[in-house]
Amino acid sequence: xxEMSWSVNFSKFQKAPEFREPKAAKPSGHAVNxxxxxxxxxxxxxxxxxxxxxxxxxxxxxxxxxWATSLVAAKLLQQETLEVTPLLDREALWxxxxxxxxxxxxxxxxxxxxVLEIAELASLRKWLYAIESWVQIxxxxxxxxRFRKSLLLxxxxxxxxxxxxxxxxxEGDLSENASPRLAAIxxxxxxxxxxxxxTLDHLVKSYSQKGILQETFTDVRDxxxxxxxxxxxxxxxxxxxxxxxxxxQTVFVEPKEIAALNNRLRSRQNDLTQEVYLVLEx
Length: 282
Known about the structure:
The longest helix is centred in the last third of the chain and has 30 residues. This protein is an alpha+beta fold.
C-alpha cells in the first residue's frame, strides 16, 4: 500500500463513529404509576381527605406533571409530610376541616365588594373555625421549622368570628337578633301567621261541616294561605281563586277573612328580605 492510500484509509478510520452503549429508555409515567401502585394510594388518600380543596389536591396528583419537579422540591415536600405526621391523631385540629367547601369563589366575591349570601357567610365561618383550631396550637408542640413558619402566616380569626356570630346562628342561619329591626319583623311575621292560622282553623271547621272543602287542611299558593274547595262549591265561599288542581276537582280559594292578613304578611316578608340584605351588606 502506498503512502497516499494509507493516509486516505487512516483518515476514514478517524472519522468512523465512536461506539457507545445505548441509553436505557426512561419508563413512562403510566409504568411508574403501576410500579408504585399510585392509583391505589390516591384512592386511599382521597378517602382520608376532609375538605374539598384537599380532595382536589389528591386528584391532581394522578397526573405526574403535578409531582415535584426536582429532587430538592421532593425533599421539601417530604420534610413537610414528616413535620405534620405527629399531629395526625389530633382530632381537635382535623375535625373542624371536615366537609369544608372550596372558598375561592366566595373570597373572590368578597374582594369585589359583593354582598355575600347567608350560606356563603356560614361557609367562611367554618373555615375560620378551622383556622382558629390551628392558630391555638402551642408553638412548642410544632417540631418542624417549615410547618411552624406556615402556621405563623395564618391570620387571627377571632374578630371575624365574633362579627359573624352576631348575625349567624350556630346552625348557619341568619340570627333574628342581627339587628333590632330584623327582630321586630320576625316577631310581627310570627304574630301574623298565628292570627292567620287561628282564622283558618275556624273556617275549616265551619266549611267542613257544610261539605264545601275537598280536604280538611290549609295550603299555600303563591305565598298566600288558601283553602282547598270543591269546584262544585266554589261559589259558596267569598274569596279569590288562586289556582285549580290538575284534576279539575279542586280550587284553592283565599277567603276574604284572611285577605288583609295575607297582604300584611307578604308586605312584612318583603321588608324582611330588604333588612336581611342591609344586615349582610353591613
